[in-house]
Amino acid sequence: MKREGEVISILETIQARRSIHQLKEQPVDLSVLKEIFTYASYAPTHYMKEPWQIKIYQGHGREAIIDAIIRSYQRIGMIKNEQEPKTKKMIHSMKEFLLKIPHHALIYFEKEEDSVRYEEEYASVCAFIQNAQLAAWEYGVGMLWTITPYMHDPIFLDEIGLDNERFKIAAVLQIGYPAKVPRKKERTPIEGKLEIIE
């Protein structure tokens, strides 16, 4: 993460970026979030369709999505649907944890019936998400790209105002200023992934 006034290259940013699991409770200014997602929108996009859509839940708005998440977890069996003290305590802890995250950004797109077009749109949205993570790092903002079971729950989508038949959630980004930056983890040498055919 760069210091104020420091200029680093895009290659350094790619290497330096981390998934942030511990966030400060301080919210990120909306103008900064808009700039981050504006830079993200320069992702490659087939036919310039720019399929990505964003819902950001912050402040009191977080309560609605967190309640919907809890109900979804109960429906799919990740949380018991009962009134036992242990279950109530687990739900309370989960809500407290999620409420400490300043921003939950839900990234979604409209489904395509054609399977090739669907893959093109999904790939483009994923590029948008990675651009957002890199742009956020430049602003000193951390993100965690999450893929969670409730994203595939049709009732969850309905509760947040999305038609399950029409839209697909690609990811939920947890966003805020890093409380702790994980250490660098080395990658497998590319020679182990690379096949040259001449």
Automatic annotation (TrEMBL):
<dbReference type="GO" id="GO:0016491">
    <property type="term" value="F:oxidoreductase activity"/>
</dbReference>
<dbReference type="Pfam" id="PF00881">
    <property type="entry name" value="Nitroreductase"/>
</dbReference>
<dbReference type="InterPro" id="IPR052530">
    <property type="entry name" value="NAD(P)H_nitroreductase"/>
</dbReference>
<dbReference type="InterPro" id="IPR026021">
    <property type="entry name" value="YdjA-like"/>
</dbReference>
<keyword id="KW-0288">FMN</keyword>
<feature type="domain" description="Nitroreductase">
    <location>
        <begin position="14"/>
        <end position="177"/>
    </location>
</feature>
<keyword id="KW-0521">NADP</keyword>
<dbReference type="InterPro" id="IPR029479">
    <property type="entry name" value="Nitroreductase"/>
</dbReference>
<dbReference type="InterPro" id="IPR000415">
    <property type="entry name" value="Nitroreductase-like"/>
</dbReference>
<keyword id="KW-0560">Oxidoreductase</keyword>
<keyword id="KW-0520">NAD</keyword>
<protein>
    <submittedName>
        <fullName>Nitroreductase</fullName>
    </submittedName>
</protein>
<comment type="similarity">
    <text>Belongs to the nitroreductase family.</text>
</comment>
<keyword id="KW-0285">Flavoprotein</keyword>
